[in-house]
Amino acid sequence: MTEITVSLGERSYPILIEAGLLGRAGEVLATFARAGRLIVIADEHVAAVQLPTLRAGLGAIGVETILLPAGESTKSWAQLEALTDRLIALEVERGDHIVALGGGVIGDLVGFAAAILKRGCGFVQVPTSLLAQVDSSVGGKTAINSKAGKNLVGAFYQPSLVLIDPLVLATLPAREMRAGYAEVVKYGLIDDAAFFAWCETNGPALLAGDVALQTQAIAHSVAAKARIVGEDERETKGRRALLNLGHTFGHALEAETGFSDRLLHGEAVACGMALGFRFSAAMGMCSGADAERVTRHLADTGLPSTLSDAGVRASGEALVAHMLHDKKMEGGKLPFLLAHGIGETFLAKDVALADVARFLDQEAMVVA
Ligand SMILES: NC(=O)c1ccc[n+]([C@@H]2O[C@H](COP(=O)([O-])OP(=O)(O)OC[C@H]3O[C@@H](n4cnc5c(N)ncnc54)[C@H](O)[C@@H]3O)[C@@H](O)[C@H]2O)c1
Ligand SMILES: O=C(O)C(=O)C[C@@H](O)[C@H](O)[C@H](O)COP(=O)(O)O
Ligand SMILES: [Zn+2]
What we know:
This protein is an alpha/beta fold. The chain folds into 2 domains: 2-171, 3-Layer(aba) Sandwich (Rossmann fold), CATH 3.40.50.1970; 174-367, Dehydroquinate synthase-like, alpha domain. Helices cover 47% and strands 17% of the residues. It has helices at 26-29, 44-58, 77-89, 104-116, 130-136, 174-191, 193-207, 211-231, 247-256, 265-282, 288-300, 307-310, 316-323, 353-367, and strands spanning 2-6, 13-17, 37-43, 62-68, 97-102, 122-127, 141-146, 149-156, 161-164, 336-339, 345-348. The strands form 3 sheets. It has a 7-stranded mixed β-sheet, sandwiched between helices. Strands 7-8 form a two-stranded antiparallel ribbon. The chain has a two-stranded antiparallel ribbon with strand order 10-11. Strand 7 and strand 8 (149-156) form a beta hairpin. Helix 5 runs parallel beside helix 6. The longest helix is centred in the middle third of the chain and has 21 residues, at 211-231. The protein is globular, with a radius of gyration of 20 Å. The structure holds nicotinamide-adenine-dinucleotide, ligand LNCXM5UN and zinc ion. Nicotinamide-adenine-dinucleotide (NAD) binds at residues 43, 45-46, 49-50, 70-72, 75, 102-106, 108, 128-129, 131-132, 135-136, 139, 141, 151, 168, 171-172, 176, 179-180, 265-266.
């Protein structure tokens, strides 16, 4: 078993990674059960395919399940209200732990519910999508979406444990696997050019279901994320903001497509990273060759890398208007994640939004 620690003083916690771990979950989750019972929250897709394995793995521990609809629209006030009402009815106490079994949607929602339920109860992440295994289950960003934008209501609230079983990816639809892979590639683009090259070599086999490669990518990704979160838990030091590569553009694209399955989060991030590299090249900060290499790898793996691929036809001005809700806004200015090259991402604080809008208009024309 691989164990990686997120080091945050008294809020430190382990990430456990092993093929088959869900089927032995009782070994690590027994300590979180009260009166022989655990409350597991899952969406309906995941419950159908992975809950039986978790139940079996918990052995004698009783499982109370709360099922929610699948999809981004579940990160809503309505579902948060329904979930917290249900947890209160189940008499969850502050000292209890609830279990999020699912992708990033369930993890973000359940984490936020745990943060506010009776002013905070415990929670455990059992991520089942590639995206959740490499990114969202680690680091304690919890949230729901608001009408104005992505993750605008939430809290930094760390789980007590993350249990990762790569075998659960066997039931993940191919499109969801690709979307999660975008966040894997992100770690290479941020500060690890060798890992980006690893992705170029191994991405296709990983996406085709090679469990050894998936396990390697998960361990590498969460180790990178744990390191960054340990340095800058609340995104105040400029370090954690690097994990937002592709997200300022990406969240605007998600807003424009209605936070729906028209464009998945990982797909929006893929397109956002390609845009970020091409914008960096257009500003003379990064070589055109690197921007092209990034675009090519994302496109080769079937991810959107242009506005047209992403199905977005909005003007640059409209996309920039979405960006004004970005949580990185500081004193009315929006810092951008740009790059000097692959593995050389940095936070630029002096980007003119008019340049961004003009660039996006040109992108829309080039590919129309
Ligand atoms: N908190 C963070 O740090 C963080 C990081 C990245 C993304 N996110 C958020 O995560 C969300 C996206 O997460 P996601 O891509 O996991 O989406 P998701 O939770 O909607 O899961 C994707 C789909 O795959 C299904 N699924 C998940 N695991 C499965 C499995 N093993 N077998 C079969 N089906 C399975 C789900 O039911 C869903 O339909 C977004 O809301 C994004 O904002 C948060
Ligand atoms: O953990 C982080 O920090 C990230 O930025 C990871 C992102 O992949 C994730 O999508 C996150 O939810 C985006 O954060 P936000 O603060 O822009 O909502
Ligand atoms: Zn993301």
